[in-house]
Design goal:
The two termini are 29 Å apart. The longest helix is centred in the middle third of the chain and has 11 residues. A four-stranded antiparallel beta sheet has the order 1-2-3-4. The chain is built from two helices and four strands, in the order H-E-E-E-H-E. It has a single domain, classed as Streptococcus thermophilus LMG 18311 protein like (3-Layer(aba) Sandwich). The protein is an alpha+beta fold.
Length: 119
C-alpha cells in the first residue's frame, strides 16, 4: 500500500478521531475520494498480515472502473490486490454498497498467466 500521508488532502480526520480516537497514519485512515466527479468513502487499514481498503457509496456499489481508479490511489501500480468471495458460512455484510480490496503483506498473491484472459 502507498504511504497514506500522500492522501492527507482527502483524509476525514474528524471521522478518524470519532471512530478510533486518533488520526490515521501512513497505513490507516478514513478518506473521501473522488472518481469521475463521484465521491467514495474509503477506510484503509493494515494489520494481522494484511493491507485492506473498503470502498463504499451511499446508494450503489462501486463499478469495476471506479474500483480500479481507487486501487491506483491506494496501492502501487504493480501491487496485486484481490476482492474475495468468501464461503457463505463466513460472509459478512455491514454495508450494502461496500466492496473490499486485500493484499497480504508477506508473499505474493498468485495470479494466472495473462494469456488465460486474452491476447
Amino acid at each position: 500500500m502507498k504511504d497514506l500521508h500522500t492522501l492527507d488532502a482527502y483524509r476525514l480526520k474528524d471521522d478518524e478521531r470519532r471512530y478510533y480516537g486518533v488520526n490515521g497514519d501512513g497505513g490507516n485512515g478514513i478518506f473521501k475520494v473522488f472518481v469521475g466527479g463521484k465521491s467514495f468513502r474509503v477506510i484503509a487499514s493494515n494489520g494481522g498480515g494484511w493491507e485492506h481498503i473498503s470502498v463504499s457509496r451511499q446508494n450503489r456499489c462501486p463499478t469495476w472502473e471506479e474500483m480500479c481508479a481507487i486501487k491506483d490511489m491506494f496501492f502501487d501500480p504493480e501491487e496485486v490486490v484481490v476482492q474475495y468471495h468468501p464461503k457463505k458460512s463466513e460472509y459478512v455484510n455491514m454495508h450494502p454498497y461496500c466492496l473490499h480490496m486485500w493484499r497480504p503483506t508477506e508473499g505474493e498473491i498468485p495470479t494466472p498467466p495473462s494469456i488465460y484472459v486474452g491476447v
